[in-house]
Amino acid sequence: MKRIYLILTIIGAITPYIFFMPFFAANGFDLIAFLSQLFANGPASGFTVDLLISSFVFWLWAYLDSRQHDVKKWWLIIPANLLVGLSMAMPLYFYLRAK
After folding, report:
1. pLDDT tens digit string along 11-52?
2. How much is the pTM?
3. What is the distance between the alpha carbons of residues 99 and 89, in angstroms, rounded to a whole number?
4. Rounded to an integer, what distance in angstroms lies between the CA atom of residue 2 and that of residue 6?
C-alpha cells in the first residue's frame, strides 16, 4: 500500500501544476493575481473555501494522528499542501504513516 500512496503523492503533485503552469506562463509568479483568481467568482470561491477548511481540518487530524502513531516528519504535509495542494498532502501523509 505504501507504494500506492507514493504514486498518488506524485500524481497529486503533478496534476495541479498542469492547470497552474499556463497561469504562471502568462502572468509570471504573481501571487496576488493567482490568489485573486481563486476568488474570481462564486463557484471558484466556494471551491477555494472548501479546500481551505478541508486543509486545515486535515492538518489538525494529521498532527493528532501522528502523535498516536509516531509518524515522523508529518509536518511535511503543510508545505506540500501550501505549495501544491491537498491532492499531494493527503497521500503524502498516508505514505509517511504506512509501515
Report:
1. 999 999 999 999 999 999 999 999 999 999 999 999 999 999
2. 0.89
3. 18
4. 6
